[in-house]
Design brief:
This protein has helices at residues 3-9, 27-36, 46-49, 54-65, and strands at residues 14-18, 40-44, 69-73, 76-79. It has one domain (3-79): Translation Initiation Factor IF3 (2-Layer Sandwich). Helix content is 41%, strand content 24%. It is of the alpha+beta class.
Length: 80
């Protein structure tokens, strides 16, 4: 993965939050945002994580919208 994308991700604001509705509830919105911008930052709230990790949810969400997962840091994922 590109270091350039990772450095750009630092300045991107979180525009989506995944809660108890899970990733299915935000997949369409993420796809729409990725059509308009290069990077989208998504926060995974405690209610979404349940028995899994933010990394696993981020990978699942990336697969769902055919996006590249640039990185996960804490409970936040950056998608390209």
């Amino acid at each position: 993965m590109s270091e350039d994308l990772r450095s750009k991700a630092h300045d991107v604001e979180t525009t989506l939050r995944v809660g108890k509705g899970g990733i299915a509830s935000v997949a369409d919105e993420l796809a729409s945002q990725l059509d308009e911008r290069e990077l989208v930052k998504v926060k995974f709230l405690r209610s979404a994580r349940g028995g899994t990790t933010s990394e696993a949810l981020a990978e699942e969400l990336a697969d769902a919208v055919d996006a590249e997962l640039v990185e996960t840091r804490g409970h936040t994922g950056v998608f390209h």
